[in-house]
Amino acid sequence: MPLRPIASTFCVLSAFMSIEINNALIEEILSLWKDRIGGDFAGYRGHVYRMFNFCLALHPCTEDEKKRLAIAACFHDIGLLSAHTVDYIQPSVSAVRQYLSETGQQAWHEEIGLMIEMHHKVRTYKTDRYPLVEVFRKGDLVDFSLGFFKFGLPSTYVSDVKKAIPNNGFHRFLMKGAREWFAKHPFSPPPFMKW
Questions:
Q1: Which domains does the chain show, CATH number per domain?
Q2: Which pairs from 38-45 meet CB under 8 Å and 24+ separation?
């Protein structure tokens, strides 16, 4: 079931912190991709919101940081759905750079590009210049792993986010893609993985 917009941006469901289920910027960006994504839209939208909430819980954000996280969340897997390829990082980075250029936010090209490029890095991404890159990597992994990896987030909060924002088949979609990749490349990791 898709998320329904509510008057408030937050729905307080957890003792740990609020869970954001309707962000104007996320809604605006994703609406541009809805037709192209098609039947997987509700699942992707849910993933964007869950990992966005996990990022906010992992790192107290300024409004600018929150905006950068929202943009990166919308675009981080967009190439997987719009370009229909497992090698989707570069199409995702290209799409976000085009969006940033069109909206006059070119100053964020490098940082948000790195957030997307490194979000499937296996090891910690170390940088003093762009700490959100590691926050983003962790937030995505919390959702990708269905909460197996929590990075210190309380289990109750992870569970509350998952209840508030339905999966809508997102992980089933990922498993289908993984099966197809490994059927063709049984000894090769997917191209989006970085050591």
A1: 10-184 (1.10.3210)
A2: 40/81, 40/169, 40/170, 40/173, 42/1, 42/2, 42/3, 42/166, 42/168, 42/169, 43/167, 43/168, 43/169, 43/170, 43/172, 43/173, 44/77, 44/81, 44/170, 45/2, 45/3, 45/168
